[in-house]
Design goal:
Elements: H1 12-22, E1 27-32, E2 35-40, E3 46-49, H2 57-65, E4 70-86, E5 91-96, H3 106-110, E6 122-137, E7 148-164, H4 184-191, H5 195-207, E8 211-217, E9 220-225
Parallel strand pairs: 3-4, 4-6
Antiparallel strand pairs: 1-2, 2-3, 4-5, 6-7, 8-9
Helix pairs in contact: 4-5
């Protein structure tokens, strides 16, 4: 039996991205070995939309590449608006989330699958978008949301997209010169990101052989950009 999240469980956001990237003449929900791809474009490229961690993709993407090129679509919400409804469907209120997404969020997805960008015929596209998250005050949600459940996510606007075709494309995340030594704190300061994001990025980039750990300086690792990727 082919493995799929099932169209009944997919969000409006997932469905919109699936149809957008599959494009005219393509097909959605296509069996590939023991899995089901989100889509196959007219040119034969496989589409897989992944809103969370890339860990579940490690096995299936390798199987897809036997049959053709694969593009993983990862949406990042630049702006998120939250709409809350009562259990009977009545609208209660809307608010804007204080959290803003950035291109660096790709490393949250890659943390448990840093080898994915190194697989031949695999491309990753980051879609910078705005979303509306619909919640229901039904008492069944997580305690941190005070029992409010997330019911759906909708695409509300497009910004820009970034396509990573090969490992050297990830050099844009290393704003240092060749042989220039740096730490996670230095990366955070230069890139304008927090230290936790910098550490995640460097973990992934080290696994990808984009950067190299060379020695410890106190509690911190010192890195250099690799000469060739």
């Amino acid at each position: 039996m082919s493995k799929s999240i099932g169209v009944k469980n997919e969000s409006s956001l997932h469905r919109a991205l699936k149809y957008h990237y599959t494009g005219p003449g393509g097909k959605t929900e296509v069996s590939v070995g023991e899995y089901v791809a989100d889509g196959v474009c007219k040119n034969g490229e496989y589409i897989e939309v992944q809103t969370g961690s890339f860990a579940p993709l490690k096995k299936k993407v390798k199987e897809y590449t036997v049959f053709g090129k694969v593009r993983i679509i990862h949406p990042v919400a630049v702006t998120k608006k939250i709409e809350v409804y009562d259990s009977d469907g009545s609208f209660l209120y809307r608010r804007k989330s204080p959290v803003q997404g950035s291109l660096w969020d790709i490393f949250d997805a890659l943390m448990y699958a840093p080898e994915l960008p190194l697989i031949r015929n695999v491309e990753i596209e980051v879609a910078m978008i705005d979303i509306i998250e619909k919640r229901v005050k039904d008492g069944k949600g997580a305690w941190r949301r005070r029992g409010i459940s997330i019911k759906d996510k909708e695409l509300s606007a497009w910004h820009e997209c970034f396509l990573f075709k090969k490992s050297s494309d990830y050099l844009c995340f290393v704003p240092f010169k060749k042989k220039e030594e740096f730490t996670a704190s230095m990366l955070a300061e230069r890139a304008g990101i927090n230290k936790d994001t910098a550490r995640k990025a460097l973990y992934v980039l080290t696994k990808m052989k984009i950067v190299k750990r060379i020695y410890r300086k106190g509690p911190a690792w010192v890195y250099i950009k690799k000469a060739a990727c």
